[in-house]
Amino acid sequence: MQVVTIEVPSLGNRCHLVHDGRRALVVDPPRDLALVERAAEAAEVDIAVVADTHVHNDYVSGALGLARRHGADYLLSADERVEFERVGVRDGDEVPVGRLCVEVHATPGHTRHHQAFLVREGMQPAALLTGGSLLHGTVGRTDLVDPRLTRELARQQWRSARSLARLHPATTLHPTHGFGSFCAATSAPTSDPDRPVTLAEQLTANPVLTTPQETFVTGLVSGFGPVPAHYRHMAPLNRTGAGRALPRPARPLTAEAVTDTVLAGGWVVDLRDRSRFAEAHLPGSVSVEAGTQMATYVGWLVPWGAELVLVTDDAAALEPALRDLAAIGIEGVGTHLVDSARLTAAYRRTDWAGYRAALTREPDRPRVVVDVRQHDEWAGGHLPGAVHVPVQDVARHAATLPDGELWVHCRSGYRAAIAASLLHRHGRDVVLLDDAWDRVHELSIPVDGLAA
């Protein structure tokens, strides 16, 4: 038995292909089926069974489309209400995949009908595909289904993890979430996909397996961070099987149409490097630099269904951006290759050394530090007198921030660039602090809070 881990960094997830050398099971595939099909081709195996551990809240599942393309069975909890045919499975069911036996385990918590899949071949150590239940060093969050169920689902999550922990200690653990997805309750330790993590390791390393139930539940639910806005749309899309269809193609737009989008209140997202955006950009556009975080922040900040145009000066950047947006159900967007002559807006960009120098050079100049990190980051240390507005709330508070020059920062510069562009779009005078937060300590800039 082989377990092939397929990284999906734009979602912060992993998909898994488990095979016996001929026939394969695929668990929690993304909408981009090419990722999975390339892995199957490389392993020279046929996709025989596809499964989702749960109806996903963070991305559009590709499971139904993959199953139909390959004539495979699609496994999903029999208790899930969906609008398509599937093979409904329940706790204790066993499904053959070539020489492999797939055993279904009910693991409610992350969702009400969540399941894990234990895959065995003979006497070999089994592989446990846990989706959003037992993760590496943490568990899946329990507040995404219904806020009223958060604590009860957290108790179920604790019981589900304890149930899985009774399996053989040599069982290898292969979760979907926990690698950057906001579906994980806390940040999980970085793990090497080529080095399997065993249940034995989790018995002492995972708080859900070392903490009494109510203590764990209280700590878990009090530590949940924000939920990206697009998450509320994912489960409904997945219940209709939206991922079986190809995404609607992009629509190339003229420069005039892009301007019209801005004037009409639509969203023009610039994928270029944040330093180049600061130097020159289309008036009214927003900087969301291309990369693994792009789709998450576009999905979070752009109102669902709003007119969206992607602009860049590099045509090669459009295809991966469109693919990553389609993975969360955003499709049919406009695209435009910008002309430098139209890039007439700009704002200042500096680093922490530049900030310190500005304080020394002009100590009386009105300036406001705007910290756009999340609440836990802010609590860990922040600049004296800084205003805290998490990046997802910046547009809403743009008009009410104090007067003066707004110096915007985060932990690395990525979110600060988004926030600075949003504030600039609202007519504010901004300076982008494009630097690592660690540099504040290195430069002996004073910090309030628990830790620098």
Automatic annotation (TrEMBL):
<dbReference type="InterPro" id="IPR001279">
    <property type="entry name" value="Metallo-B-lactamas"/>
</dbReference>
<dbReference type="InterPro" id="IPR001763">
    <property type="entry name" value="Rhodanese-like_dom"/>
</dbReference>
<dbReference type="InterPro" id="IPR036866">
    <property type="entry name" value="RibonucZ/Hydroxyglut_hydro"/>
</dbReference>
<feature type="domain" description="Rhodanese">
    <location>
        <begin position="368"/>
        <end position="449"/>
    </location>
</feature>
<dbReference type="InterPro" id="IPR036873">
    <property type="entry name" value="Rhodanese-like_dom_sf"/>
</dbReference>
<dbReference type="Pfam" id="PF00581">
    <property type="entry name" value="Rhodanese"/>
</dbReference>
<dbReference type="InterPro" id="IPR051682">
    <property type="entry name" value="Mito_Persulfide_Diox"/>
</dbReference>
<protein>
    <submittedName>
        <fullName>Rhodanese-like domain-containing protein</fullName>
    </submittedName>
</protein>
